Amino acid sequence: MLYELIAVVRPGQLHEVKEIAKTTGSLILSRGGVIRGITNWGSFLLPKSTRKHQTRHHSGHYFIMRFDSSGETQQMVRTTLGLDPRMIKFGVVRLGGTLEAIKDVAGRVEWRKGEAEGSVEGGIR
After folding, report:
1. If I label 18, which of 7, 8, 71, 82 is the partner at 20 to 30 A Cα–Cα?
2. For residues 90-123, b (16+ Cβ closer than 10 Å) or e, as one string?
3. Which of left, alpha, beta for 118 (phi over 0: left; psi -120 to 50: alpha)?
């Protein structure tokens, strides 16, 4: 099945974002999954301030990962990210379960122009 992970990491340390993406990708690949694409959206204000791990966050570093894997692997990704103190929020959405439904889905997720008004750093590519 095809999944899309939308992750928000505490801002300020790009190497933390890369570490989390690498760890997540390694987990998926080691269990027979395929990474279709990773997109770095950069740092943006959160829709509302969030309290996580005894810290209040007003902005976060967003990245998107699209991957094919089993439901069990997707659950392991959720568990791993939920235990990481560097994560602010994340969500995993199933985009499709049949080849016909997912054959035209691209790996990269572009930010649409005109929507970056909440940008803090302007998005690092």
Report:
1. 71
2. bebeeeeeeeeebeeeeeebebeeeeeeeeeeee
3. alpha
Residue 108: what residue type? Answer: R
Pairing relationship of beta strands 87-96 and 34-52 according to DSSP bridges? unpaired
Q: Residue 73 and residue 79: Cα distance in Å, rounded?
A: 10
- DSSP secondary structure string for all residues of 54-103: TEEEEEEEEEEEEEE--HHHHHHHHHHHHH-TTEEEEEEEEEESSHHHHT
H/E element holding 40?
strand 34-52
The whole model's pTM is what? 0.75
Q: How far apart are CA 47 and CA 33, in angstroms?
A: 32
Q: At 17, is the secondary structure helix, strand, or coil?
A: helix
CA distance 99 to 9: 31
* 3 state DSSP class of 123: coil
